[in-house]
Design brief:
By secondary structure, the protein is an alpha/beta fold. It has one domain. Helix content is about 45%, strand content about 15%. It is built from 13 helices and 8 strands. It has a 6-stranded mixed beta sheet, with helices on both faces. It has a two-stranded antiparallel ribbon with strand order 5-6. A hairpin with a 6-residue loop joins strand 7 and strand 8. Helix 10 packs across helix 11. The radius of gyration is 19 Å and the shape is globular.
Length: about 300
């Protein structure tokens, strides 16, 4: 019983209490405090230890302590963004974005972002540019989240994601048909294609880190069916001052046979650029297992 209570209190601290500094204080001051908090090795301990171990299987990590600090800080900022997007207007973007690429001035597209850095403000920036979007999301349960506080946080975060994007989230089943209908109305569909291919039947062959792998093709298939382009957008974080860089690709042809590899290579380049900003390191082997072992479930 005590162990469960301790875990819930830890999650409350990690997901709510410390990140709430982002809403209570001016961002430059809050970010400086979060930088200090990120030195605490107990923050996200199981998560960063597993991520660091997985990352070392793919990339060289010279200073594990520094890598872990950067990982913890990125996670703190990502959770702080939940509070920031709830409590700040679009003027926050102008004040705290160093680079802000323009989204294409077109009525509909499929936007791709990744489990890399803190992405909530990228979604908010898309809406601020005049484009509402519906986010493809997956369901989860208290059992899958491991604790009730984590489950509650995931629930309220998804609600904030829907508010920041401007349209209700889209869940399976029937995702493709409803996504195409949304695009035909002139709104965007956005989602993260870097889900482990073991979680989707739409994994298709690519090359990642010099190895045969699979990469989810579902969002690109939606773009093809709707006859709209694909746009990649990311929101990088400067760990020196907490400012963001919004990067937006030009519209990409959904029918281009090289598109899937282009997206996968773009994603790999992001991970190589800031490997501590990738939040699905524990799932990385799943991108290669189905490609190398056809008998794998």
């Amino acid at each position: 019983m005590w162990r469960k209570l301790r875990r819930e209190l830890l999650n409350a601290t990690q997901y709510f209490v410390l990140p709430a500094l982002g809403a209570l204080l001016p961002w430059p001051l809050a970010f400086r405090l979060l930088r200090r908090c990120a030195r605490w090795r107990w923050l996200y301990r199981e998560e960063w230890q597993a991520a660091l171990g997985a990352a070392r299987a793919f990339l060289p990590v010279e200073d594990g302590e520094d890598w872990a600090w950067r990982y913890r800080l990125t996670r703190l900022v990502d959770h702080a963004d939940y509070w920031l997007t709830r409590t700040r207007s679009d003027r926050w973007i102008a004040r705290h974005f160093r680079r802000r690429d323009a989204f294409p001035d077109r009525p509909a597209a499929v936007g791709l972002f990744f489990h890399w850095c803190a992405g909530m403000w990228g979604v908010r920036a898309l809406k601020a540019s005049g484009h509402r979007s519906a986010v493809l999301a997956g369901r989860f349960s208290p059992a899958s989240m491991g604790a009730w506080v984590a489950y509650f946080y995931g629930h309220v975060r998804l609600r904030e994601l829907a508010r920041s994007s401007g349209l209700p989230l889209l869940y399976a089943p029937g995702t493709v048909a409803r996504s195409v209908a949304t695009l035909q109305r002139g709104d965007w569909i956005i989602g993260t294609p870097d889900v482990p291919p073991t979680e989707t039947p739409l994994g298709r062959p690519v090359t990642l880190f010099g190895r045969p792998a699979l990469f989810a093709d579902g969002l690109m298939e939606i773009a093809r069916r709707a006859g709209v382009p694909v746009v990649i957008f990311t929101c990088a974080l400067d760990l020196a001052d907490g400012r963001r860089d919004l990067r937006v690709s030009p519209p990409l042809d959904a029918y281009d046979p090289a598109l899937r590899q282009h997206v996968a290579s773009y994603w790999e380049a992001l991970i190589r650029e800031q490997p501590w900003a990738f939040t699905l390191w524990q799932a990385m082997p799943a991108f290669f297992q189905p490609a190398s072992d056809p008998a794998a479930p």
